[in-house]
Design brief:
The protein is α+β, with helices and mostly antiparallel strands. The protein has one helix at about 1-25, and strands at about 35-45, 50, 60-65, 70-75, 85, 90-95, 100-105, 115-120, 125-130, 135-145. It has one domain (about 35-145): Lipocalin, CATH 2.40.128.
């Protein structure tokens, strides 16, 4: 009986050690590759806060497993800002949980690091939050496939 109890404690200790030492991972097994769509897209600055999705904006971003990107960014015209439409063609890389996009389109996407996060409500997401010349862009992209 004592030997069985000692064995149970040993097995429990091994399981705890494996969990604490990185034996458990929340990262997707095949990296951040997948198709993403914006579920939250808010800009804020001196002129206030704008929900870009409610304003007609969108961002679709496809990260191919080979490292290429495709998709489309649309930001509707508002106040003195003209509409933006940009092709998301380019490349992407991942370092740990941080995804960066390289592309010729001159948009915030190529200058914003995105963090790969497991959201309890939405599953895998890419989250970006950065200030650009007095305007903060906060965006969450949900992995849809």
């Amino acid at each position: 009986m004592r030997r069985l109890f000692s064995m149970q404690i040993l097995l429990c200790g091994i399981a705890i050690a494996a969990f604490a030492c990185g034996g458990y991972s929340t990262s997707p097994t095949n990296s951040a590759a997948g198709n993403y769509t914006a579920i939250s897209f808010v800009t804020s600055g001196n002129s206030g806060q704008t929900d870009q999705l409610a304003n007609g904006g969108s961002l679709l971003l496809n990260l191919a497993s080979g490292g290429s990107t495709s998709g489309h960014l649309h930001m509707a015209a508002s106040a003195s800002n003209p509409a933006v439409d940009a092709d998301m063609a380019g490349t992407w890389s991942q370092n740990g949980d941080v995804v960066t996009i390289s592309q010729s389109a001159d948009t915030f996407v190529r200058d914003m690091p995105f963090t790969l996060t497991l959201d309890p409500a939405y599953g895998w997401t890419l989250v970006g939050n950065k200030d650009f010349n007095g305007t903060n862009i906060n965006i969450t992209l949900k992995r849809v496939s």
